[in-house]
Amino acid sequence: MQTTLFLFDDNKLQPQSKNAMADLTKTQLVLGFGEREIISTQPVYEELKSQFPGAHIVLCSTAGEIINNRVNDNSVSVAAIELEKTSIHPVAVNIRDYENSYEAGKALIRLINFTNLSYILIISDGSNVNGSELVRGINELVNNRVPVTGGLAGDGTNFQSTVVGLNEKPSNGNIVAIPFYGKHFVVSHASMGGWEIFGPERTVTKAVDNQLFEIEGQKALDLYKTYLGPYADELPGSALLFPLGIKINDDDAPIVRTILSIDQETGSMVFAGDIPNGSKVRFMKANFDKLVDAATHAAGQAFQKLTSAPQLALLISCVGRKAVLGKRTEEEVEAVAETFGNKTLLTGFYSYGEISPFNENAKCELHNQTMTITTFDEL
């Protein structure tokens, strides 16, 4: 396996790694993560298709691009991957063709042959797709047979329109799955948040999909404001500092959910993922150092499953973390780079949701506010 990183700049690809491939025509997979307007209107896809004629090309809009130990805005980060002993057969569906995201998730997996399958990477639209329902559909058919990781496309802090494309210019509603086949392919993954839990555990008494109305009979927004103190006056912007930790079953690890918007009239809150009735919730708050430490721990957890430094690490972090960390955002990427060392190339993006299991042999989950890492290599 060989990987070369590029930045798309001035309508050209600029190599960003020392080990540039001698023959770009051998590339099987190109992952491009970029600002929505750039990858939608500039000839990014056309240039990639010209440079990598034999490759499958996946493009995804972002809330920030990761390349090595840097975080960029308004750019396109490209990873060109040559697989020597592994095959891939990417597939895609569009949410418009299905009744809901759950059905789209199942339809996507039905397109995949599971013979000799090692791993599935998911890159999905982040504005028209319900990530929780997508993951539920995926899990139903994958049934823990192989690990599944990935993320939802972003659109900066606009939250308006995201685009994804497989072997075409990116557009709205697309969901891409990239299955990797063969016994020589090695994948590792980890996902960490680093948010501090505070306040007692409470039960959700009224919620519809991703809209939370009541916690233990009290309007959710009213209760939320009592915990925010002076930050309550800064809603909805300050909500990124105070996500919700949710446990669907008592034995589950808490999943972090980002608040997207609030409704003063109904006293409800809309989240970037479903909130089931009867689930247990606790409020969370940001701690800068713990967020960066969590990225380090995620890298360490992914690394400890391997016998040597991987060729490539895909980092999918959350737009909420980027908003909270601000000028310190690169610190979490630098922490990951330091953990893996200079033999591992880093690519990735800031997302509207991360997809990863909590641990080995577990179903994948939709996460918010995490650093999710997947490593790729061949034996």
UniProtKB/TrEMBL annotation:
- Residues in FIST C-domain domain copies: 220-358
InterPro entries assigned to the protein according to its UniProt record, in alphabetical order? FIST_C, FIST_domain_N
Alphabetized, the UniProt keywords read: Kinase, Transferase
Does Transit peptide show up as a keyword for this record? no
Q: In the record, what terms sit under GO molecular function?
A: kinase activity
Domain FIST span(s) in chain numbering: 26-219
Write down the SMART domains for this protein, in alphabetical order: FIST (SM00897), FIST_C (SM01204)
* Name the UniProt record assigns to this protein: Histidine kinase
Q: Which organism is it from?
A: Niastella caeni
